């Protein structure tokens, strides 16, 4: 290869010929190569060819960039780009692939545009052995190597905020040439809107920022060429008073992944919080130590407990605050303690409040990686549902006009009572009642007066019954009474007489006095009698009383025999 112009630097009388010049370059102990603007090899001396194990013919035109370690590639490219504007570039240390593996090389470049536009002359010195020696015998050299190859950016910043030196990580992470950054304010790497935060960090660090207590801020640092910014956590240590440093040591860690993870966590927590607050259920989460971990707004509303009590994180304080609202507070506390005693236990029950509210309570253990870390309680207000169920149940088994039970309820009670008697050998009676003159009242005074009469009859029956007895409107003007636990048949006759007496009292409906009598049929249970037979016999007995003029009762023995023809 001819290097034109080199002969002008040597006196003509002493200028060596090209063969001598090539031999001199080839004998240099350092590797020397020339690359074009694209980084392709144009020439290499003997040391370089030996180092990389290639012949010159095989090397010309190949990419020298392929010899650089991937982690050092950006630093090398940035250095080659910046050297074009210098007489000689600053030395950098990179790893290159040699015949013996990766070698640590000191690289110094100089532009040789006179040879070819964009061409660069590179001198490479193998530092591998020297660095190994230094690392073994010199802790400072080892530390410099660790700092240079660290994943964190380490900077020495002057008291006035200018970068004095910076580690190679600034190139790997942000693409900046360390040499170009030297002497520039650190603020140049920070977006303008965030510079007040940086200024505050410097001000804080100037007062108190020791090695054990650095000032830490999170700021975006601008990438080379203003190609966006990356979030960094910067730690400031004040070593201005240290004569060997005389400034701030600033360490920066790329927290892009951490911020992304933090955002995902915040997003998930926000979604969870919004979901919990939007649900109709009250939610309470307690850890295994009995501390309240979380709760939603609905829980506060349902339990009417101050938020300050919940924020004290003591679940026993919350239990003590709410227990007196319940109809059975001791039972509530006992159930709670029983559930907490069994880490893996689950519960599903109903809580009844003194004011009539009803909550459905469910509790399940909370697990993380198959380890129980707490317990989740959920409370659902089912008051309206329970009240509706009770209303529907009442309507299904009660007469809407009189409020007494209906035929379905009466037959159910009678059937169960007969079944119990088969086991206990007790006694019961069935009374069948029918008004004697309801049709006449409906026809002459209207159905409103008839309804009034039916309701009055129902009240009269209620007033004559014991608490254990059952009364029902069986339909129209017919009523039934079930008397259980009879000690004597006279109890049934006495009840019938009280009802007859009560029904004879005059009733005022509007401006009209009404009087309605009633006919009552009575039958008593005998072994082997079915509930249907009892009801049928009581009905027949009622007709006997009506046939005899009404306003009386008659007894019919089970099987159809009249045993009490006159009353």
Provide a descriptive summary of the structure in words.
The chain contains 20 helices and 23 strands. The chain folds into 4 domains: about 5-135, Beta-Lactamase; about 150-255, PAS domain (Beta-Lactamase, 2-Layer Sandwich), CATH 3.30.450; about 280-385, Beta-Lactamase (2-Layer Sandwich), CATH 3.30.450; about 400-565, Alpha-Beta Plaits (2-Layer Sandwich). The model is unreliable at about 1-15 and about 565 (pLDDT under 50). The protein is of the alpha+beta class. Helix 5 (about 130-135) crosses helix 6, helix 17 (about 440-445) runs antiparallel to helix 18 (about 445-465) and helix 18 packs antiparallel against helix 19 (about 490-505). The chain has a 6-stranded mixed β-sheet with strand order 17-18-16-21-22-23, with helices on both faces. Strands 2-1-5-4-3 form a 5-stranded antiparallel β-sheet.
Structural class: alpha+beta
Task: Give the name of the CATH superfamily of the largest domain.
Answer: Reverse transcriptase/Diguanylate cyclase domain
Largest sheet: 6 strands, mixed
Looking at the structure, the CATH topology of the largest domain is: Alpha-Beta Plaits
Please give the radius of gyration in angstroms: 51 Å
Please list the strands of the largest sheet in the order they lie side by side. 17-18-16-21-22-23
Low-confidence stretches: 1-13, 563-567
Note the beta-strand portion: 25-35%
Distance between the termini: 147 Å
Shape: rod-shaped
Q: What is the CATH class name of the largest domain?
A: Alpha Beta
Tally of structural domains: 4
User: Roughly how much helix do the residues carry, as a percent range?
Assistant: 25-40%
Known CATH architecture of the largest domain: 2-Layer Sandwich
Give the strand tally: 23
The overall pLDDT, averaged over residues, is: 84
Separate helix tally = 20
């Amino acid at each position: 290869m001819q290097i034109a112009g080199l002969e002008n630097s040597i006196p003509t009388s002493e200028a060596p010929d090209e063969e001598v010049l090539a031999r001199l370059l080839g004998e240099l102990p350092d590797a020397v190569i020339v690359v074009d603007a694209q980084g392709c090899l144009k020439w290499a001396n003997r040391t370089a060819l030996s180092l990389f194990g290639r012949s010159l013919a095989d090397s010309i035109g190949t990419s020298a960039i392929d010899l650089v370690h991937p982690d050092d590639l950006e630093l090398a490219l940035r250095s080659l780009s910046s050297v074009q504007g210098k007489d000689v570039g600053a030395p950098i240390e990179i790893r290159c692939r040699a015949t013996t593996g990766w070698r640590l090389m000191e690289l110094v470049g100089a532009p040789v545009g006179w040879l070819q536009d964009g061409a660069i002359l590179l001198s490479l010195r193998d530092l591998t052995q020297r660095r190994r020696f230094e690392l073994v015998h010199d802790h400072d050299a080892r530390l410099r190597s660790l700092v240079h190859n660290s994943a964190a950016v380490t900077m020495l910043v002057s008291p006035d905020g200018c970068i004095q030196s910076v580690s190679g990580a600034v190139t790997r992470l942000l693409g900046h040439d360390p040499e170009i950054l030297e002497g520039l304010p650190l603020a140049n790497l920070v977006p303008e809107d965030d510079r007040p935060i940086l200024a505050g960090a410097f001000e804080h660090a100037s007062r108190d920022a020791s090695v054990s207590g650095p000032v830490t801020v999170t700021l975006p640092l601008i990438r080379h060429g203003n190609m966006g910014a990356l979030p960094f956590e910067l730690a400031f240590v004040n070593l201005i008073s240290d004569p060997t440093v005389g400034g701030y040591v600033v360490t920066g860690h790329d927290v892009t992944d951490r911020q992304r993870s933090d955002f995902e966590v915040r997003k998930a927590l926000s979604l969870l919080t919004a979901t919990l607050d939007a649900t109709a259920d009250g939610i309470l989460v307690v850890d295994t130590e009995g501390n309240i971990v979380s709760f939603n707004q609905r829980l506060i509303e349902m339990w009417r407990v101050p938020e300050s009590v919940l924020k004290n994180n003591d679940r026993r304080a919350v239990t003590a605050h709410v227990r007196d609202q319940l109809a059975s507070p001791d039972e509530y506390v006992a159930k709670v303690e029983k559930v907490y005693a069994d880490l893996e236990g689950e519960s599903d029950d109903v809580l009844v409040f003194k004011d009539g509210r009803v909550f459905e309570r469910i509790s399940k253990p909370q697990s993380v990686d198959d380890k129980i870390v707490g317990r989740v309680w959920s409370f659902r207000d089912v008051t309206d549902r329970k009240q509706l169920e009770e209303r529907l149940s009442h309507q299904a088994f009660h007469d809407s006009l009189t409020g007494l039970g209906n035929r379905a309820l009466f037959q159910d009670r009678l059937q169960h009572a007969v079944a119990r008697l088969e086991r206990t050998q007790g006694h019961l009676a069935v009374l069948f009642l029918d008004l004697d003159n309801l049709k006449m009242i409906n026809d002459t005074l209207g159905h409103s007066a008839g309804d009034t009469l039916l309701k009055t009859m129902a009240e009269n029956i209620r007033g004559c019954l014991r608490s254990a007895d059952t009364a029902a409107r069986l339909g129209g003007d017919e009523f039934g009474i079930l008397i259980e636990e009879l000690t004597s048949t006279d109890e049934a006759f006495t009840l019938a007489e009280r009802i007859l007496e009560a029904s004879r009292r005059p009733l005022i409906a509007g401006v009209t006095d009404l009087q309605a009598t009633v006919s009552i049929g009575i039958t008593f249970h005998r072994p082997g009698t079915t509930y249907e037979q009892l009801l049928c016999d009581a009905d027949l007995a009622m007709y006997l009383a009506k046939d005899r003029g009404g306003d009386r009762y008659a007894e019919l023995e089970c099987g159809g025999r009249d045993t009490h023809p006159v009353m």
